[in-house]
Amino acid sequence: MKQPLLVFNEKGIYCEQADVYIDAWRPVDKCIITHGHADHSRWGHKQYITHHKNTSIIKHRLGDIIVTGKAWNETFVINGVTFSLHPAGHIVASSQVRVEYKGEVWVFTGDFKTENDGLAEAYEPVKCHTFITECTFGLPAFKWTPQAEVFNDINNWWATNQAEGKTSVLFGYSLGKAQRLLKHLDPSIGKIYTHGAVENMTEVLREHYDFHETIRITRETTKDELKGNIVIAPPSAHGGTWIRKMVPYVTASASGWMTFRGARRRRAMDKGFVLSDHADWDGLLESIKTTECEKVITTHGYTDIFARYLREELGYDARTEKTQYEEEGAEVGDKKEKEAAS
Amino acid sequence: MKQFAQLIKAIDSTNKTSLKVESLTQYFLNASEEDKLWTIAILSHRRPKRPVNTTLLREWATEISGIPLWLFEESYHIVGDLAETIALIIPSSENELDKSLSEYISEIITLKTLPEIEKKAYLHENWLKLNYYERFVFNKIITGSFRIGVSQKLMTRALAKATSIDEDILAYKLMGNWTPETTTFQKLILEENEEDYLSKPYPFYLAYAVEDDFQTDLGDINDWSFEHKWDGIRSQVIIRNREVFVWSRGEELVTDKYPEFQRFLEEIPDGTVLDGEILPFIDGDIANFNSLQTRIGRKNITKAMLQKTPVILNAYDLLEWEGKDIRQLPFSERRELLDKLISQCSCDEIGLYLSETMNITTWEAAAKERERSREKRSEGLMLKRKNSPYLVGRKKGDWWKWKTDPFTIDGVLTYAMRGHGRRANLYTDYTFGLWDGDELVTFAKAYSGLTDAEFRKVDAWIKKNTLERFGPVRSVTPHHVFEIAFEGIAESKRHKSGVATRFPRILRWRQDKPIEEANTIDDLKALIPK
Questions:
Q1: pLDDT digit string, tens, across residues A48-102
Q2: Is the CB of B89 less than 8 angstroms away from the CB of A140?
Q3: Where do the segments described as Disordered lie (chain A) (predicted)?
Q4: Can you tell me the ipTM of this complex?
Q5: Nearest-by-Cβ selection for B88 from A259, A308, A334
Q6: Which site among A135, A219, B312, B384 is 20 to 30 Å from A160 CA-CA?
């Protein structure tokens, strides 16, 4: 039997023909990286290949590594296998990876979302035979509201807090969500302050992207300065001593998990905005349809449920592979943020 | 409905009690009288009867959202709340529709009597017309569970602010057997009406557990009265107008479940309210609470049950005497009246006993008495300040419970289930096993005692070490040992292990212990009092 073009082994997603890994979770020689979140771009590979805008992100996170940058749609051939990167719309500089060998095409989404968020390069559907997809929010309970509406709510929330003399503290991962929030906050309301982890990453990204002015919170920042303004911080800053400086403050989290009342209450947030960097139920189904694929492999999220739906209701050849990307229903970001915030 | 949904949304949007109370107060100031009354009813667990069973609700909701039933079930296990799941999967619409809360509720009450096809049509129509939050609230009313992070106490506080009526007086008015169909806001809250008070219990005063070094904080030991703490059903028995009413702490009228207390009429005068514990009483002795379990859940009490597990009232306080509310009298004076009343009764005949006070003059003696509790089958000691009035609700200061240390045993985590509410989507409900040879036999389920951070860790571990899935339940590789604490233990034929434990909860995660060192079923059985 013919060896599949991509296999899942104990180190990651592997293309034997090219001897290349994608988003490997153990150190390997050559690894293509979809995006800069820690569960996808790990430490220890000898050679990294990623979109050129992502090179500075992973260098910031991983230090002195050997990395080659590629443009969108630029093909590169390794031992007869053609690779190319295509925007995934997940966060800034996030890619899907297209792999072609002897006329057979596979696509790995990494993480993706279908809505154009005005910052990350917009998701581009890529035709393929086998589609390896995340399904973090692969349940019909997840349906996103257009982001314009969500940001309208966020800015209104900020303005209301300001009118009550309070500081707004908005939580989002320091890479990706934080900049998406920053991009769409209304600077006419007040000043935008950032936690150190967010500020460091944003500085790296300013090389390629435009953002509103931000002010880093330091030991010298006073309560009075912050009053009425907004602070963007990673989720790990919630509940720590750092936040005490903001009193009186109101907290909010922006995440797909805020769909659930239980999740909002568990996190002890005042307010939860449903704003995700992953595809929702309809987005997942729509993108699978547009790839015109026959086979689907689900890698992380509600994998079993989603694959069963694809098989039983839509007739796809769908299965699940175990990976070490964020597991089903994981409290996403806990692990990754610890690192980013330090 | 918009106004009510807005209120629930506002309550949901904050973690601060003061802001929740403020939202409620504003609501009580602005809503119509009918809506206010229903809101009070819903938040004090007086809901209309469920008009549609949940099986049908699930079917109809999946039909309208075009997903298979199994996918709905999977989603429900993850969301952890039926009303919320239905609200989430139904497509949202822009239709504007505003019926008031009470209009909706009266429709829901009528719905119960309609044929199935009309029920379905009604639900489909309204699900599509309501926005997400309204739909959620609507479903909550239909499914009949309305825990939304507002206790009756908070609701009463807000109502007190809005009406300028004293909080304790309101708490009293809200007690008892009313529904919005039998009263009005005016009658229930604003008017004084003698008749309403006939069956009304007083709000229970609840004790706190003692804190570290409490002996020094409590001052002179002679200011305190000591009793044993018995494990039963906290109740008030009311004798007024030649009728007996029995109320449980959950504000449930349970008179019919304890026909024994009708005998009180023979010796207790009208205008008497007793506070105490309903206890199983077999062969002249207080029996294990477990023996009452079979009686508690039953709607109809049979003669056989009455013979097998008779109950008594172990009274410890007198709240009303000769028709007068005496809660403001000092505890010692209320006790004197109670002692006198019961000393004139034929206790064995009518099943009314006095919870005896102990003559304790030093903390050493108190500690010794507490040590002996388990022999006497009591849970520990109760400390009551002699000069204190009978307060409303859980208030620190005058009543303390000083329980015996719980039993503990080390069990192995064998199954996990997803939690509900704020633990939805996390595996937080665990089953534990003890060794029987080389097999682990289930002995207890527990879902409290770990911190949020620990739950997250265990949850992540469970997801990676699942053996099998059964709907919301997963079996896991035996690997983790937890120290389980529980209050009581008794033999049981209904449990696989042969043992029933009371209030099991997790005391500690024993990451230092390999599973081989967990306890055995025999270790557990050795704890059963002889």
A1: 999 999 999 999 999 999 999 999 999 999 999 999 999 999 999 999 999 999 9
A2: yes
A3: 320-342
A4: 0.90
A5: A259
A6: A219
